[in-house]
Amino acid sequence: MILEKIQIESILPHREPFLFVDGVMEFSHNKIRAFLNLSEDLPFFKGHFPGNPIMPGVLVTESLAQTSGLCLAMAARFDKSGTLEFSDGDVFYLASANIKYLAVARAGEKLELFSSMTRGFNGLYHFCVSASSGRNRIAEGSLVLASPKNVER
Predict the structure, then answer these.
(1) Considering the entire predicted model, what is its pTM?
(2) Is 126 a catalytic residue?
(3) What does the pLDDT average to over 131-139?
């Protein structure tokens, strides 16, 4: 594993219970493969749905957005020596999402998250994303992250 949760917390601003990436398995300059363990004690499973706990689609999308943000922040920190330098301040906002849901992610599964940056321009970054659990493709599509420097306040 490339990154564990404690290292992810040094990059992403999210914290429990709204951190939806547990580890990073692979990373290259514009691609990342991460995961989230869907333990039965995650808060959203209690009410979605009792007796049939599934992860809400919007949280699958958030997991993919956080994974994409990790990809951006890690790429910015990757120096020529091949080491990562962790620092505060890398925040990106979810600007757009076009996600198709194909199956449900259930409690007890491991959600694998893949993101590939396809282009970036003027503080907007486009990603192709997918989420899988075992052999099941849970979701796929695209999303755009925006740098807060380009978001009007």
Answers:
(1) 0.91
(2) no
(3) 96
